[in-house]
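A quick aside before the break. I want you to see a complete sequence-to-structure record at least once, exactly as it would be stored in a machine-readable document. Don't worry about memorizing anything.
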Amino acid sequence: MTDNKHLPAGRYHYEDITVGNWFETGRMVITESHIVQFAGLSGDFFDIHMDDQFARDDGFEGRVAHGLLGLVLADGLKNRASTQLAAIASLGWNSWSFRKPIYIGTTIQARVEIRSKRLTSKGDRGIVGLGFNLKDCKGDTIQEGDNLLLMRV
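That is the input. The structure line, written in tokens, reads:
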């Protein structure tokens, strides 16, 4: 049975999508390089990200990727997915939750769902509410939250 809410590969404008549509991104493996480069970019060199023994002493399996790195990569996975939304700009992120740690070697993938949509007051653009579910290779939710996206009509 085909799920008519699934958006197959292609480019979609505001009028092409409905609430409930969804797509999944490709996958990527988190590497030590991701963590080190994000620490350099953000200035966040907190020990849990940089010191394996420190992380283990606090009960983790090893160094933990920055929570915001997960959010950034979720958005990047969306932007390079085979299903493309005709986006203009991100308007904000809301209620982002860190459910599980992301370790070096974790494979991540995002499911993106259209949760709301409305036209701007001028009616020449659309504002779409996206729900993100960032999962690991076992399908467990690592992070989740919402994004408002300004789209072409």
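Two observations worth writing down. The first helix runs from residue 32 to 42. The mean pLDDT is 97. We'll return to this after the break.
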